[in-house]
Amino acid sequence: MKKMLFIFNPRSGREQIKGHLMEILDIFSKAGYDIHVHATQGQGDAARTVRRLGHRAGLVVCSGGDGTLNEVISGMMELKKTPLLGYIPAGSTNDFASSLKIPKRMGRAAAAVVKGSPFPIDVGAFCGDRYFVYIAAFGAFTEVSYLTSQDKKNRLGRQAYMLEGLKSISTIKPCRMRVEWEEGCLEEDFVFGMVTNTLSVGGFKGLVSQSVALGDGVFEVLLIRMPHTPADLSNIVSYMFLKEEPNEYVYKFKTSSIHIQSQGEVDWVLDGEFGGSRTQVDIENLRERVKILL
Predict the structure, then answer these.
(1) Maximum distance among all Cα pairs of the chain, rounded to whole angstroms
(2) How many domains does the chain have?
(3) How far is the C-alpha of 92 from the C-alpha of 102, rounded, in Å?
(4) At 249, is the secondary structure helix, strand, or coil?
(5) b/e sequence 122-150, b meaning 16+ C-beta within 10 Å
(6) How far apart are the first and last CA of the chain?
């Protein structure tokens, strides 16, 4: 029989998988899979489980939010042979699933896995020892994703990120950085930056260029330098969300690799989870590294 490793986060997205688990397993069983099921027991458990058991399966399916997906793919990166990936989104925002147009209904998403065809996607390598699926970010508001408790995410969904984000506006602090990529170099005081492979960030579409291709070998980069006045900040927000005239404080470009050096330690977020504090960061695009069933 075909072997599947099915990993799910029982707490993601208001614990919605509880009402769908039997339906999902029935779909997988009828498709001829011998299923090993694992419910995650805490942070890092999904990655450890994939490293331990992933080599036995031709297909690894995960259900959870973007953080759970990150862990599963991070575990897959350490296997000698990379299995196929299936994804049943169950988080608060599900940015990557939105980019891939994976069905929101869990039963339909499970059916899409067993009926789907492999679609290659890029994976981001972060400092040689971490990975990300759709975003690596630093600066203003990025701490919101990992400071917001799972319970609050479950209760409020996207509103949790917005509420916590508003609290951090008054604490925005710039950091002097030197940013180098294949075609350019910048040295500025930045308050926010993100390296992405997605159409949706934090549940918002339109923050990233609509010409995104998830398997083209390049990231979309957005950097914001420190605004000098409240009006400058307002103009930045208008540009980001309303697509007004190009803004002198916002840089956008595409690249397959990027090096960032900062004067002090900077906190990074990878797919919504804390990625560590760094003074130097190297990010590389691993083109079409994983094949997901769509």
Answers:
(1) 64
(2) 2
(3) 15
(4) coil
(5) bbbbbeeebbbbbbbbbbbbbbbbeebeb
(6) 21
**Structure tokens given for 188:** 């500025």
What's CA 86's distance to the chain center, in Å? 15
Look up the pTM and report it.
0.86
Which one of 59, 89, 116 terminates a domain? 116
Query: 10 Å Cβ neighbour count for 18?
Result: 11
Tokens representing 265 are: 């330690």
Which domain, by its residues, includes 70? Answer: 2-116
Domain at 205, CATH number: 2.60.200.40
Measure the CA–CA gap between 162 and 157, rounded to whole angstroms.
Answer: 10
Which residue matches tokens 């789907």?
A: 116
Give the pLDDT confidence score for residue 122 in this predicted structure: 98
pLDDT given for residue 170 in this prediction = 53
The residue whose two tokens read 């990231």 is 219
Whole-angstrom distance, CA of residue 200 vs CA of residue 207: 7
Residue 265 is among the residues annotated as catalytic for this protein: no
Residue 195, both tokens: 């390296």
Cβ atoms of residues 189 and 232 within 8 Å? no
Q: What is the pLDDT of residues 174-183, one digit of tens each?
A: 899 999 999 9
The total number of residues shown for the chain amounts to 294
Chain mean position to CA 171: 25
CA–CA distance, 287 with 69 (Å, rounded to integer): 18
Distance CA 22, CA 31 (A): 14
Are residues 183 and 92 both part of a single domain?
no
**List 71, 188, 273, 288, catalytic entry:** 273
**pLDDT confidence of residue 95:** 81
**pLDDT beneath 50: ranges in the chain:** 146, 158, 161-162, 165-166
Strands 200-201, 175-181: pairing is unpaired
Tell me the two tokens of residue 102. 């994976």
